[in-house]
Amino acid sequence: MYIRQALQLARQSLAESSPTADLDAQVLLCHVLQCNSAHLIAWPDKQLDDAQQRHFLQIIERRRQGHPVAHLTGQREFWSMDFMVDESTLIPRPETETLIEYVLEKHSHQSSLKLLDMGTGSGALAIVLAKENPGWQVHACDISPQAIQLAERNRDKHEINNLTLVKSDWFSDIDDTDYDIIISNPPYIDADDPHLDQGDVRFEPASALISGNQGMKDIEHLCSQAKGHLKKAGWLIVEHGYNQAEQVAVCFTKNGYSEITQKQDLSAHIRMTAGRT
Question: Which one of 16, 208, 255, 260 is CB 3.0 to 4.6 Å from 275, fit for a cystine?
Fold first, then answer.
């Protein structure tokens, strides 16, 4: 099988199951051949060997069944950095860059700062902020041992020296009370949300997606508990669902936060709320 034939076969196979069949075919073939997309264009008549062909057909079939491309390749780009991903954590998504942008916009002028990332997953948020601000002291936690192991691998891959990772069920094993900022992309999807049966989330851990009380339980827990771990005038910053802006603002207000700020993602949905103790 030649490169051009492999791409054509993949496009046809994925046409009904993926809205990005052409891109999926290219990304997955580049992964199998360990090349970039320019190689596919330059060498359309290059032949795949037997092992490459078998591997490509296997992952195309898994993609046809709905498995995320990031799980099939084992990586996802976030903030122009490559992160290793697996089925133990959420796949980093573009809308989460809204939180990164806000933190950098408001706090990058501070050469030293202490920050905690709650529920770090792959470690993407904490690693980006630690890399962008090497003078900061960044901590991150997750309840999942597998997630912590993955975050450690990503930390080491990007040679981050100012990030400490710890296993903790939210604040249960967090003793420090002097954080300048606490950030989180917590579970915030209601168990009955129909989106849970669609797309990549079908293959991601439910514990990282679903929260009780119509998706607000973990956000409410963060709002009530974070104050005991923040400095005076410290910030809590959380990502939330596109339709939760009002509920989250009320939660922040009820828990005594001030200077409450909300920020839209690139799709013009309010996806982030910040408040000061």
Answer: 260
